[in-house]
Design goal:
By secondary structure, the protein is an alpha/beta fold. It folds into 2 domains: 160 residues, Immunoglobulin-like (Sandwich), CATH 2.60.40.3500; 225 residues, 3-Layer(aba) Sandwich (Aminopeptidase), CATH 3.40.630. Helix content is 26%, strand content 30%. It contains 8 helices and 20 strands. Helix 2 links the parallel strand 15 and strand 16. Helix 2 packs across helix 7, helix 4 runs antiparallel to helix 5 and helix 5 crosses helix 7. The longest helix has 30 residues. The two termini are 29 Å apart.
Length: 404
């Protein structure tokens, strides 16, 4: 359920104070991400407190402009605000589960964005949570030690003063990794053209190589699940993407239908029902190693594993849908699309719980016109250019860009 809260306090007269204008809480792999938008850069201290469990974000020399609303999540139950003094504000997030602060950093403005303070939390054991309690473990923007008087939100006197010397900066941007999956191959020809006997496996491989070349020229690191005419089981394709720690997985296919008039491109992502079933199946497996990003789940309780997998699946489903939206937006500029172009299904290759994934159906080999088009290198290049533009838009999306 959404949590609605209002900040009520006097305005600082300091004209240089930053104004926090918005807040978002989104589910991420194994935790949540909190984003505070502001019109200026501001200093911060972020730390955990216990009894009850809560996260504290001290926004220094700042003020809050309006009512803010958080998104539904499974970790933060409520939020409240207080004043440290006339110019500094404290935001307290009540926690439903033990967590650790993974990272805290400030993002500078980009196109159509403001300054953003990003706080990433990950679900943790009670022992790990307890080991990081208190302001001495604060993530701080301050480069020098300092002591700051705090009107504590708790009766715990030991938390009334703190010092911190940890300087946190934005992580270095890493090269994006994309795994392209040319469908079928080897003993599995896929769909066969009704008129020219064109094999889907050949069309998908040619498209995969074309798109790989375009993306590599843009600076992406790109891998193919297959670069020759070989058969690879569906689950193995997912494991290949996980092996390369892919940031995006795109499976490439061509469709077929009994109705020879059917034509048009479509994009599939994992349905919520299929995602939930997959999460349940993963949660029941005895071996919990490498389900999500190489994380060993074997020492976690079943409750924590279930939470981690559910959060990861939801996060990937949301990112996958975002990417599919960009794919549809770019493809419609140059090729015919089917109605309701973004569709949902339970394809096995889309079930990696830690990698945003989409399946591209380039057109119908059962349609004479589209079979001829898909055989043309110039047409496949047009599709590849549109797919490349969609990938650029996805990684430039402010919410996605903040991850890098």
């Amino acid at each position: 359920m959404a949590v609605l809260f209002v900040f009520v306090f006097g305005w600082s007269q300091n004209v240089s104070a930053a104004t926090i204008t918005n807040m978002r809480i989104g589910q991420q792999v194994s935790g949540v991400r909190i984003v505070l938008d502001a019109d200026k850069k501001f200093d911060y201290d972020v730390f955990l407190l216990n009894n009850p469990k809560r996260l504290v974000v001290d926004a220094l020399n700042s003020k809050i402009k309006k009512t803010l609303q958080s998104s539904k999540n499974n970790i933060i139950s409520s939020t409240r605000v207080g004043e440290l003094n006339a110019s500094d504000k404290r935001v307290v997030f009540d926690l439903q589960k033990p967590v650790l602060i993974k990272q805290v950093f400030m993002l500078s403005p980009q196109t159509n964005t403001s300054w953003r303070l990003v706080v990433d939390l990950v679900v943790a054991s009670e022992r790990d949570f307890s080991s990081k309690i208190g302001a001495k473990y604060a993530f701080s923007s301050q480069s020098k030690n300092k002591s700051l008087a705090i009107k504590s939100a708790s009766s715990n006197k030991s938390n009334s003063w703190f010092s911190s010397s940890e300087k946190v900066s934005r992580p270095k941007q890493k090269q994006k990794i994309i795994v392209l999956d040319p469908g079928h191959g080897g003993k599995d020809p896929g769909a066969i053209g009704a008129y020219g006997r064109t094999y889907e496996k050949n069309i998908t491989l040619a498209m995969g190589k074309e798109l790989k070349g375009i993306l590599e020229k843009k600076g992406y690191k790109v891998y193919l699940t297959r670069s020759t005419d070989i058969f690879i089981p569906l689950r193995q394709r997912v494991r290949i993407a996980q092996k390369y720690k892919a940031d995006l997985f795109v499976s490439i296919h061509a469709d077929s239908a009994v109705n020879k008039n059917a034509k048009g491109l479509s994009v599939y992502t994992l349905s919520e029902t299929a995602s939930d079933k997959e999460a349940a199946a993963l949660a029941e497996r005895e071996n919990k190693v490498d389900i999500i990003g190489g994380v060993d789940f074997s020492e976690n309780s079943k409750e924590i594993n279930d939470i981690l997998i559910s959060l990861s699946q939801t996060d990937c489903r949301n990112k996958s849908s975002k990417f599919a939206g960009y794919m549809v937006g770019e493809m419609k500029k140059s090729v015919k699309l089917v109605d309701n172009t973004h569709r949902f299904a339970g394809f096995a290759v889309l079930k990696a719980p830690d990698i945003p994934s989409a399946l591209l159906e380039m057109g119908y080999l059962s349609n004479r016109q589209e079979e001829q088009l898909l055989k043309q290198a110039s047409y496949r290049k047009k599709l590849a250019n549109s797919a490349s533009a969609a990938i650029d838009r996805y990684f430039n999306d402010p919410e996605i860009a903040a991850l890098y």
